[in-house]
Amino acid sequence: MYQKDIKFNEIPLQLKYIVKDIDKEKVKNFRWFQDKANNIFDILLHDYAVLYDDNAAIIIAAVIDFSIGIADSKERKLSRYFVPLIIRKDIEDKNYIGIIKGSGFTAYLYDAVDDIHYIRFVDSLLSSNKNIDFNNGGRLEAFKLIDYDIYKSERFSNKSTNSLTFLKKDEIIKTFRRMMPGINPDLEMTMMLKQNGFNSIEDIRGYFQYIDKEKNIYTIAMIFEYIENIIDMWQFTQEYLKGILEKFAYMGDIPLEYIKKSSEDYLAEIKKIAGIIADMHIILSKISTNSFLKKNPKESDVKELISGINNKYNQLLNYLKDGIFDKETKEMFEKIAHQKDVIEKASKYIVKLYPYFGQYIRCHGDLHLEQILKTEESYIIIDFEGEPTKPIQERNKKVSPLKDIAGILRSFDYAVYSAYFNYKDAYNSSESELKNIEEFLLLWEDIVEETFIYTYLKIVKLYAPDILPDEKRLDMIILLFKLDKALFEGIYEINNRPEWVKIPLKGIIKCLEGLGNNQIM
After folding, report:
1. Closest by alpha carbon to 365, among 340, 342, 390?
2. What are the C-alpha distances in Å from 65 to residues 3, 37, 52?
3. How many separate domains does the chain show?
4. Would you say residue 194 lies in a domain?
5. What is the rounded distance in angstroms from the CA atom of residue 323 to the CA atom of residue 318?
6. Structure confidence by residue, pLDDT tens digits, 49-80
7. Residue partners of 227: CB distance under 8 A and separation at least 6
């Protein structure tokens, strides 16, 4: 709690002290906070602008640096976030993140991203293409692309590291909470794909940039067309697998052809999605703008990929060493820790394959089933910002389209093990029953993967064969990208959803076993 003999309208003058008293544990519980595995040691106000104030409420756009680190280490780093704040004299709910006691009043501090008054201000700012000067030399700029009105705001389910607010009539505002310098790839990729005839994406209505006093540009928010969708493909797959398990769980050994036959409806969906992703990669491979122009990979590109895998592997093991986990999770960690030699052997071999990787292009960068919306007519791909914890410069790099393919394949695996662990938690099954269920789900996953890859490759080979690797090395290179993705997922889950970490750990073990068993090695 911050306490000082000040008037309510003097609160902004004390903001740098007030933010220091923000409840750190409440911040760590926010879905958008990406540093959950670290301790917050200090909270520093970098810049701010008062957007609205009266006798009862003050709305502030704040740029806040969180000083974070591991408890036993002296190393600290600053992690910058955009945090819209609203300060009210009356408490409306328990979601406050700070308390201010002043002269004759008590006020409560909230995250304002879904507050209707904040949203209306954002609306008016965009409508007028107006700029807002910040207190420490920064500036917020608005860019309107399509006219619209906002009548009401509503928060989406809290599943994203960004904040998604539904703006009725028919818009969504996506606020990029973690601030990284550069034009966000979500903005650049969506606009470029739309301009080049790829329509399985959202329309952008407008966007906002924050420019600091050193002239660094940060994409703060984008306003999208709201897509009426039936379901995203992650939810669809989860519900589908739940239904399959209810039907087949107690049947014992099930023939492969029977599983394939019973999954024809799902496989039809996957074929359509594979076709859309193939079209996206083909279009991206034809764009001649310099930042999108395809390129031949160099040995250094593959070395960078290998180096990233090794760094993630070591980082994950460090997190695991310092964390508190159950017996099953610890056993997975130990299994991963004992396979370092597999990565070392694979690294030496794969570096030599750089001439066979196929040409590199700009890609989605973080493609998985939750990024694909199923509509009544077709499918929409969303969230082109890449892996949100990486610097924007790294996310903008060209890469093999197999990175996106590996993301989808890892997503199938996520869905399978999510269904497996949900079943395990819900039913008191014997070890042999659970083994049968896992084997059944893995057979199903193999069928889905095979269908997806076959459909995708068939189309791309016709229209952009130069972006595909040499066929003899295809499986090996896909495994490499899958391992890279699974390691990223493991680190992400420890920082954001520690209870989910078993799923990527299972995937890492599978990838390491696949690399170890590869005949080329």
Report:
1. 390
2. 22, 17, 23
3. 2
4. no
5. 9
6. 999 999 899 999 999 999 998 766 778 999 99
7. 202, 373, 375, 380, 382
Tell which of 96, 112, 128 closes a domain: 112
Residue owning tokens 């159950």? 326
Task: Supply the angle between the helices 299-322 and 327-337 in degrees, to the nearest 10.
Answer: 140
DSSP SS3 for 167 = strand
Q: Which domain holds residue 392?
A: 231-284+357-468
d(CA 40, CA 65): 10
Write out the H or E segment, with its range, that includes residue 164: strand 163-168
Residues near 459 by beta carbon (within 8 Å), at least 6 away in sequence: 274, 275, 278, 279, 282
Query: Do 245 and 385 belong together in one domain?
Result: yes
For 419-454, write each residue's pLDDT tens digit: 998 888 888 888 888 888 888 899 999 999 999 999
Helix H or strand E segment including 446: helix 431-463
3 state DSSP class of 79: strand
User: What is the value of pTM for the model shown?
Assistant: 0.85
Q: Cα separation of 448 and 38, whole Å?
A: 37
Asked whether 89 and 104 are in contact (CB, 8 A), the reply is no
Per-residue model confidence as pLDDT tens digits over 294-326: 999 999 999 999 999 999 999 998 887 777 788
